[in-house]
Amino acid sequence: MKRFLLRSGLLIILLSYSGTKATACSVHFTNPLPLQNSFLKKMEDHRRLIAACLAFPLPTGFLGAHRIFLGTGPYIPVVYIATLGGCLGAVPLVDFFFILFSKDLEPFINNPHLFMWVKHPA
User: Fold this and answer.
1) What confidence score (pLDDT) does residue 32 get?
2) 116 found inside a domain
3) Mean per-residue pLDDT for 96-111?
4) What is the reported pLDDT for 122?
5) Structural domain tally of the chain?
6) Residues 97 and 38 in one domain
């Protein structure tokens, strides 16, 4: 007997094949949020790792690739390139450590400021 799970929204259809006869029944999730939260946590970890790799000064940190990946103003990559990564790679190196070791990546996403780790007044 083979069983296949098909997922459509909150509905799982369980198909049981016994010979040529197929039966179907539906089962509803009582709480889908743990699965969703687990998936979002993994996605956040992958995003953090990619951004940290791009922030490392050699080869892409000097270009501001991590800022483009996280979203930023259009002038930020130009400043990174013109200053060779802000004082010869110091800014991307600090960005690298802040991205890697901060608890929340949200303050760095779509941040238009040159120094993304500095808290700016609203």
Assistant:
1) 60
2) no
3) 91
4) 66
5) 2
6) yes
